[in-house]
From TrEMBL:
Organism: Kitasatospora cheerisanensis KCTC 2395
Pfam families hit by this protein: DUF5996
The protein's name: Ava_C0101 and related proteins
InterPro entries the record matches: DUF5996
Length: 313
């Protein structure tokens, strides 16, 4: 399998817009049926060997629990209960409205009494339109979705490797359905006051963070890219160097993102090492300026300092 295969946004934009809304439907069911975790860690998808999953959710009636899985090999949605019940349907050939109704039908069939609290898209241009009324988004190219899944899996492993270098509070590597990105976040545990922010944002950024991740392109960055940001942003961040040379600081919603375009990574002699170099340089820029404790860092995932190999003379 090719490492980091090509997937230009324009080659699957319509499919991505449909799949993004499919993911939001299931993500909102997960939100309604799961116990709330700090920084909304209960909400994102996690990866499986065939796609993405809500993880066990519930319990519902009778103490049963369930998972909802996107299978991007067979291109089906599966709903399975702890007691052995199962329902599924194909992902292709459905509008968002069809998908929403078929999902609710599957839940009812399995006696699962959970529905989205607000069955509308989140932070998308059609956020005023209920999922059930969306017959516009219906594109589904299985080949493009398979490529998306391959990239998602490879980047997840890269982010897992990046995550080994920090022993402080760190999120899982998880796939957010609201922005359709894959991310891992490091925390300093310094509490941040955000009186003017909405409750969702306040919870997500209640502590100082440096987040790293990948998205597949959107209206703001119309191509796949690796990214990193520090929140709140320390003074002088954009003056700090990024590596490799193709990386840059970019203005975004009043702060700045470190960006390295996916095509620049693909063109590198060692794409894996190049992406890791970028993430580490962006982390170092934010951590140094924000005064993060170096003792939280653990190269190679080793926190026992007696086991670390001393640097060569």
């Amino acid at each position: 399998m090719e490492l980091f295969p090509p997937l230009p946004l324009e080659s699957w934009r319509d499919t991505k817009e449909t799949l993004h809304r499919f993911a939001q439907v299931i993500g909102k069911i997960r939100m309604a049926g799961s116990a709330r975790r700090n920084h909304w860690w209960n909400v994102p998808f996690h990866l499986t060997g065939r796609g993405i999953t809500t993880r066990p959710t519930g319990p519902t009636r009778g103490g049963d629990a369930f998972t909802i899985d996107f299978d991007f090999t067979d291109h089906r949605l599966y709903v399975r209960t702890l007691s052995g019940g199962e329902d599924s349907f194909p992902l292709a050939g459905r509008s968002v409205g069809d998908f929403y109704r078929d999902t609710l039908r599957a839940l009812i069939h399995l006696d699962i009494d959970i529905v989205p609290d607000h069955p509308y898209p989140f932070d998308l241009p059609d956020s005023h339109r209920p999922f059930a009324d969306d017959d516009e988004h219906r594109s589904y190219d299985p080949q493009a979705v398979t490529t998306y899944w391959h990239i998602l899996s490879q980047v997840a492993l890269l982010l897992e490797q990046y995550a080994t270098g920090y022993a402080g509070k760190t999120s899982p590597v998880h796939h957010f359905w609201h922005t359709f990105d894959l991310a891992v976040t490091r925390f300093s545990d310094r509490e941040i006051a955000q009186p003017a922010a909405d409750p969702v944002t306040r919870e997500a950024y209640s502590r100082e963070v440096i987040s790293a991740g990948f998205w597949f392109g959107d209206s703001n960055v119309p191509a796949p890219a690796f990214y990193s940001y520090t929140a709140p942003e320390p003074d002088g961040l954009v003056d700090r160097p990024l590596h490799p040379a193709a990386a840059s600081w970019n203005a975004s919603r009043g702060s700045h993102l470190a960006l390295l375009m996916y095509e620049d990574v693909r063109a590198a002699e060692d794409p894996w090492a190049t992406a890791l170099e970028f993430l580490e340089s962006a982390y170092r820029a934010g951590a140094d300026l924000a005064g993060w404790e170096r003792k939280r860092e653990c190269p190679g995932g080793i926190t026992d300092t007696t086991l670390r190999t001393p640097p060569a003379e």
